[in-house]
Amino acid sequence: MYAWTLHQPQRAEQNPLQKMDIPVPSCGKRDLKVNISACGVCHTDLHIVEGELDLPVLPLVPGHQIVGLVAEVGEQVRRFSLGDRVGIAWLNQTCGACEYCQRERENLCPEAQFTGYHVNGGFAEAIVIDERYVYAIPDNYDDFQAAPLLCAGIVGFRALRVAGVQPGERVGLYGFGASAHLAIQVLTHWNCETYVFSRGSHHRKLAQKLGAVWTGQAGNRPPKPLHRAIIYAPAGWIMVEALKDVAPGGVVTSGGIHMSPIPQFPYSLLWEERCLNSVAHATRTDGEDFMAIAAARTMITEVEIFPCDEINQVLVLLKESKLKAAAVLKVKA
Ligand SMILES: [Zn+2]
Ligand SMILES: [Zn+2]
User: Fold this and answer.
1) Which of 170, 284, 320, 332 sits at a 20 to 30 Å CA gap from 267?
2) Coil/strand/helix, residue 136
3) Which ligand is nearest to the CA of 109?
4) Ligand 2 centre and the CA of 136: distance in Å?
């Protein structure tokens, strides 16, 4: 099968991924083989390709927002059948035995394996994965619209959960990219009032269209103090600005993997039980709960579709912030 493979981390401009013919993986007892039709491209893929994350295995096929059809099932597979349309996300395997796995925090499992990082991912014609880490894709999305749900959607949703968002609350979203534009639709579903902070006027317009009650830029004060603030932009100074925006007892959550250093700030900003925290990956429960909301309420997912052969160019566009929407690769010709 064809796979777009990384042999050595390189800058995106140097065409780091090569199209190769590699063996089709074989299916274990609890595994599905999925023929891939679409795979989203995420900032984490760019970090992997450029070597900003330590790479456990090379050569490697990146990609972790995968949609496709079940083409083969292992003998102990129970949840899925041949021909089912399924989705595969970042969390690929966990140990099931450590204290994190036992306490519903499997996203923190030290043995966790991630799709397109520890094991080959979705920039390929097929993938084999344990069925327990696979999601059903709701019928109200085509393959391309469904792809961003699997990382931007699920991880963005976990940020709402870690921030402790309750129905009807006032919630600030700082940065309005792929995660935030799905998170706002969950917040609307929960009857929350959403306040969106973004530098881009295009993003602020989209936020208004998706239900924001107020838009501005980080550093502007919202008209009312917020209950929760979620930072999707990788800028540490915004954490401090968001602390100024939350009411006593409010929570400020960082939803990103990377962030520039957080500047020093006076204790008075944290006083009155304000809280700072962060999100790492997501559990399968987060994924299932988010997909249930996505099934009940059709979310608008803005995508730009590219042939898989253009993956290297897409990574450059992503790096230079030149994409109009979330990039999704059309894998099946
Ligand atoms: Zn991702
Ligand atoms: Zn574990």
Assistant:
1) 170
2) strand
3) 2
4) 23
Q: CA separation (Å) from 58 to 8, 54, 135?
A: 7, 11, 27
Listed in sequence order, the residues at least 6 apart from 260 whose beta carbon sits closer than 8 Å to its beta carbon are 234, 235, 236, 237
pLDDT in tens, 177-224: 889 999 999 999 999 999 999 998 989 999 999 999 999 999 999 999
List every span in the chain annotated with CATH 3.40.50.720.
Answer: 154-278
CA of 34 to the centre of ligand 2 (A): 25
For 216-233, write each residue's pLDDT tens digit.
Answer: 999 999 999 999 999 999
Please state, in angstroms and rounded to a whole number, the distance separating the CA atoms of residues 221 and 57.
46
- CATH code for the part of the protein at 154-278: 3.40.50.720
CA 67 to ligand 1 centroid distance, Å: 14
CATH superfamily of 2-141+302-330: Medium-chain alcohol dehydrogenases, catalytic domain (3.90.180.10)
Query: What is the CA(175)–ligand 1 centre distance, in A?
Result: 16
Ligand 2 centroid–CA 64 distance in Å is 20
CA atoms within 13 A on the CB side of 74: 17
Q: Report CA(175)–ligand 2 centroid distance (Å).
A: 32
Q: What is the DSSP letter of 102?
A: H
Q: Which ligand is nearest to the CA of 45?
A: 1
Cα separations (Å) of 50 from 199, 263, 280?
26, 27, 21
The DSSP 8-state label assigned to residue 124 in this structure reads B
What are the residue ranges of CATH 3.90.180.10 in the chain?
Answer: 2-141+302-330
